[in-house]
Amino acid sequence: MTKLEVLKKYYGYDGFRPGQEIMIDAILEGRDALGIMPTGAGKSICYQVPALMMSGVTLVISPLISLMMDQVKALNQAGVHAAYINSSLTEGQIARALQLAAAGRYKIIYVAPERLETESFLSFAMGAEISMVTVDEAHCISQWGQDFRPSYLKIVRFIEQFSKRPIVSAFTATATQAVKEDIICVLGLIEPQVLVTGFNRENLYFEVRRDQNKDAWLLEYISARSSESGIVYCATRKNVEKVCAFLEDMGIDATRYHAGLSPDERRRNQEDFLYDVKPVMVATNAFGMGIDKSNVRYVIHYNMPQSLENYYQEAGRAGRDGEPSECILLYSAQDVATNQYLIENGKDGQELDEQTRELVLERDRERLKRMTYYCFTSDCLRDYILRYFGEYGSNYCGNCSNCLTQFQEVDVTEAARVLVGCVGSCRQRFGINVILDTVHGANTAKIRGYRMDQNPYYGKLAKVSIPRLRQMLNELLLKDYLTVTNDEYMLVRFTEKSARLLEEDTKLVMKMAKEPERAKASEKKDGDKGKGTAAFLEDGERDLFEALRALRMEIAREEKVPPYIVFSDKTLIQMARLRPGNRNEMLKVSGVGEYKFDKYGNRFLALLKK
Q1: 548 and 474 share a domain?
Q2: Is residue 429 domain-shared with residue 351, that is, in the same domain?
Q3: Is the separation of the CB atoms in 310 and 244 below 8 Å?
């Protein structure tokens, strides 16, 4: 079969997405490959299609059990024999899987990096025809990545043991230039085909909300979308428990996921989410890597993540089917302190020497700064993210809260001078919160203990709200009039530009939201929210879409698979619009392949004929 025939037969697609064909052709030519493609761009097609066309077995090294199970389930549903080998299986099950693999049963085998050095797996791999080793979530191999996993270094030793080196391909959704270069170097990719398709996801709406009642807003938002599936990310297990309990008490079908739960409970809760039994998942960042649930309509960050890499990867789990979806971050100042603590205390279990550990910590602190600036920028949010990853747009996307907000330019020179003066008068010895509390005139034990109530700038900006003061201070950091140290204390310090602000002829103007107009823009946006994937269907089509969803759920329960593995929402929407009446017409629907039609097609045709 040709690559297009493979694509149609097993996946139901008539053509490739941007970049997929370039990677597939390179692999089929025997070249190593590195693909940096955003979530939902179809990375798995890039290695699965050539895996099905090559003579041997493709090993896919993946970091999470849930990722492997999800991918293997989807492949088996599409008619491809695949297996996974990880700690969720007994030794007997692993031995049986390796026996079947050696007999040529599987074309694709997913394996955890920890398994690569076991005697049984090495014996199988060295005796089998391994055409390709694919490294999924490849940023995990880089010490400069946001999710470095020392176990990934086992991959290098594993590949070196082959007498005939297989093709090596690697894929990730987020990687800066430094991480990209590190992946190529550490994995030893030989003249690889490198593809960066671009990080922009046009179907995603971005918004930051600051200093409000998070719980009340969250309840109102989710209640308006009762039929939709979404993820709420929290920074700590404690917050996951609190938020999930709150939503459940308010009648929301929510479940939870974090590393403190037993493996059985994590599995049950994940399945409840995937099967749409409980459409809302409240989780730490331990959840989601590789979860291919296509109908997640919103991702809410209850707390600010530690980095833009983390944020974009987690937010990107919304709208994998290309339908309009929302990514909203609820910021509070406490989030910065929580993340500082997590960064300073999160590297102890990693196999790093002291010098490397300090370098990684410094990178993490810098990432936290950039993440914080995202929460306060008045520029286009999408453009801010894209610039971080080395892409440049127009600074207006029309689909983020900043682009839909009217701003006015405000002269904040005098307030900025007070902030800079306060930093100087305390000899640059304190962090952001102490500076803000001082100029605002806070009468707290901490301020009195530090004697900041005797500072010449104490109370000078008492009439300005703390949120607005924080916005101004972040503007000073963004424009390099001040900086913060790269250590756990994050002290506010002068830069070369600080003295300029105190000069008579220097002015600082910043964009600030016009509050009444912002509310109107928000109302206008909210009017379009909650309609979900069927937002643009006609009334009759929308009823049909719901009937198709009900049939999909019925089949999913019979097959014991998540509904989206039967057909995605996008496929059902196209069915509702095209109303195919026979096999040939049904095969023209995107996402309906021959294998899936043979399994389910007639039941959907029967419903459509009604």
Answers
A1: no
A2: no
A3: no
Q: Are residues 67 and 179 in the same domain?
A: yes
Q: Which of 333, 538, 345 is nearest to 435 (CA)?
A: 333
Query: Cβ of 383: how many Cβ atoms within 10 Å?
Result: 21
In a domain, 309, yes or no: yes
Burial class (CB in 10 A: 0-12, 13-18, 19+), 489: exposed
pLDDT confidence of residue 517:
40
State the maximum Cα–Cα separation within the chain, in Å, rounded to a whole number: 82
Q: What is the CATH number of the domain that holds 22?
A: 3.40.50.300
Alpha carbons 231 and 254: distance in angstroms, whole number = 9
Instruction: Considering only residues 462 and 512, tell me which one the structure prediction assigns the higher pLDDT.
Output: 462
Instruction: Give the three-state DSSP class for 411.
Output: strand
What is the pairing mode between strands 482-484 and 296-301? Answer: unpaired
Residue with tokens 């798995």: 44
Instruction: Quote the tokens at residue 339.
Output: 């993340």
- Check which CATH number belongs to the domain holding 480 and give it: 1.10.10.10
Amino acid sitting at position 61: I
476 and 576 share one domain? no
How far apart are alpha carbons 192 and 490 in whole angstroms? 40
pLDDT at 530 over 80: no
User: Measured between alpha carbons, how far is 218 from 204 in angstroms, rounded to an integer?
Assistant: 19
Contact 457, 439 (CB under 8 A): yes
CA distance to 41, 43, 81, per residue, from 320 (Å): 8, 12, 24
429 three-class SS: coil
- Residue 190 and residue 216 share a domain: no
How far apart are the C-alpha atoms of 575 and 386, rounded to whole Å?
Answer: 34
Is the CA virtual torsion 142, 147, 153, 154 positive or negative? negative
Domain count for the chain, please give it.
4
Burial classification of residue 355, based on how many CB atoms lie within 10 Å of its CB (0-12 exposed, 13-18 middle, 19 or more buried): exposed
- pTM for this predicted structure: 0.74
For CA atoms 499, 502, 505, 511, give the dihedral sign.
positive
Three-state DSSP state, 210:
strand
Q: How far apart are CA 143 and CA 189, in angstroms?
A: 17
pLDDT the model gives residue 74: 87
Parent domain of 185: 3-196
210 and 307, same structural domain?
A: yes
Distance between CA atoms of residues 170 and 189, nearest Å: 9
Q: Which residues, other chains included, contact 454 with Cβ-Cβ below 8 Å and sequence gap of 6+?
A: none
